[in-house]
Amino acid sequence: MDHILRTDHLANGVRVDFIDGSNRYFGDYHRLRIEIRCRIAVTPQLFVAAADPCAEAARVRSRLGDEILWVRHLERMGVAGGDLEMVRNEMIESFVKSSFPYLQSQLFPSRFVAIELAERLKKVRPFRLVK
Description:
The chain has three helices and five strands.
């Protein structure tokens, strides 16, 4: 059963959701799984260096959509039922301490959008021409 444990709105416009995807796998032992989703809205503010930020945002939206997701997973096996809440909170706080400085950077949204756009525009050639 997936449900949102916590949502943070960062100063740079990024929304971070912590989603629980845990399950019990044997007796009173659980697989603790937390999915972290960062939602980045494609807005003209991400393209201030472009000649026409609104046109650039529209071009990127046509390729990537209105919102881009950055997804990571945290997982721990063999967590006893009585320790679930404590371990879950420790995992989230550890992620917040280690990754939020990067995610809160003013450059993170624009860099991530640029990387995703470059990946999408990359030409895929499954076969090599042999002469």
